[in-house]
Amino acid sequence: MLRDQACKGSRYSFGCPACPDLEDRAKLVELLKPERIVVHLSEELQLPPEQSTDALVVHHHEAKYFNAS
Question: 24 near 14, Cβ under 8 Å?
Answer without folding.
Answer: yes
